[in-house]
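Hi! If you just cloned this repository, the fastest way to understand the data is to look at a raw example. We've pasted two of them here, unedited. The first protein comes first, obviously.
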Amino acid sequence: MEKNNYPVVCGAEDILRSLCDSVVKVLHLATTGKLSYSGMVQRITRTCLKPDIGCFVLFDGGFSGLVVINFSAASAMELYERYMLNMGMSKEDLAATFTADEVSNVMGELMNQIVGDFTCKVSQELQTHITQSQPKMLALTKHVMLSVDTHLDQPQVLRVTFQTERGNIFYLEMAIDHTEFIKLNDFEVEEVNPDALLDQIRDSMDAAMGDSASRDDLMALLDM
């Protein structure tokens, strides 16, 4: 039987690029600020939550993985303030420090929308399905390293550097099983409506502002 030489169309680095594009897309829509990420990716040995705000989410299904975003206080506050001002809030009503529950709620919900946009693209572009956990957020005032492990057979761990419009830095880390998606048949990819995504961000953010992030729940999840 003749073997077909189908091209490999998507590997871990391509999946990471798609996730990075979701970060830029969602945060730009939410804050109207410009964001960029490095053209270089780092291979690292493990993912960690780091000061000042660490947020993580697990995904499973067609492939398994873990996504962590570590924000500096400056980058978190810039994104939080730009989003809230874009929503019509006055500067006097904004939280003054990154440790405020309101900041954690906003950053956690933005993370939720980022991964939601990413999982939607995975469904459309890779013709598979993944589910995501609810993002967990932790604000840290000291240099305490929290390692978050997930069960991966052949893990690849990658880190990308992002920069905000004001030049503040934050990092995205992704741990994912070694995987390759090979295109067997042609199919059309449906474009996501940016206005619909922005409306979804606003609706979910309104709901999130009524909840406060629970540090105890996160500690229990991490078995600390």
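Ok, and the second one:
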Amino acid sequence: MSTKLLAVTGNPVLHSLSPVLMNGAIDAQGSDYRYFRLTAQSAGEAIMVFKMLQMSGMNVTAPFKQDVIPYLNHLTDNAQKAGAVNCVFVRNGQLWGDNTDITGVELSIRQHPEFLKDGKMLVIGSGGAAQGVIIAGQNLGVEVSVVARNQEALAKLKDQFGVKVFSLNDINTLVKQYKIIVQALPSGVKAFDPEILTSDCLILDANYKDSVFEPFIQKIGFKFLSGKDWLVHQAVPGFELFTGDKTTAQIMYNALDRYKFEYKGRIALTGFMGVGKTTSGKILAKLTGYRFVDMDDEIEAQEGMKITEIFKTKGEDYFRKVETEMLKRYAGEQNIILSCGGGTVKNPVNQAVLKSDFVTVWLYASAKYCINGLDISNRPLLQCDNPLAAAEKMLAERIPFYASCAYALVCVENLETEQIANKVYEQISRTFGI
């Protein structure tokens, strides 16, 4: 398999914009990589799938940034300082962990060197994000102060990083004394009234959707960097770690600007034969209240013969044409669970439809697991002397196609069908609110 695989993992992970950024850079480079969301219940599970698929790199988000460390062979200096990893990559057969969240802050602020002349930075917040900001500030050579409500957390930061710490009661006075202010607080939290800011400061807010500062940018005239800037600037070095290729922040900004997604209740299940697309899909349909459709069953009903007979009498090309027409038809429906045939992803037209019109979930397991106990009498491509070897070859050929279409991957190895359905439903419901 020449195509190299990349992913982002976390729990939940379907909300992640990392695939938008990374695939934007991949497309711009014309690189033979595929990047998708990897759902997992634990860091250990994520690393297991990483190894099974022989992946080249993986972004790591909450809550796995600390948990993943015991599974790695080496850490970069930034990852060691932070005690957290957001990038896993392979070097000489060894797993490395880096923390480009730190680099993202550095690169964002370096775009505006005039503010660094002041020589100091104020960080608002004392959680995990604040630690990365502190390290970034120290890497930039400025004195870092932290203001927060949690006195115990402040004391730990002071001991660990040697920063100055202040109570949140002092924030109005502190804000007026710093040119660089980084807010690392949960979305929607307002630690102080932005009206007190002046035009000669730089604000970096970790949030990229609903920053409390945005309504005041034009009125006051301060320089504002959102979580979008932080997101892009941590992704650029991550891409370079994973691929060895260069990219630019502008390419990723452009990808974000082009990205439009509206959930319409169309879920497609793809994956190799025997992963449980049909059986788990029926359970998932009950959980969501959506209609369930099995593509292979529908084609057999439409053609009046079994798939094996279609292959024998009319050929695979004919079957694939019918399959594409049916997929396009279902792409116009809403609230549907669609179980796709194992080879649906081979067709570039189908790939485009699955990427643009469905939340496509790739159910993944090894070929050996898939055909263990599988009735291959209606599997025309396994009618041979060595079904396992044929299955392994087929799966290896199709993995790049599954990855290309996948909104997310769910590893189903050793899971019962009900567990598969629940795992998919948990991710879908947490992200899209169904």
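That's it. A detail worth noticing about the second one: The mean pLDDT is 93.
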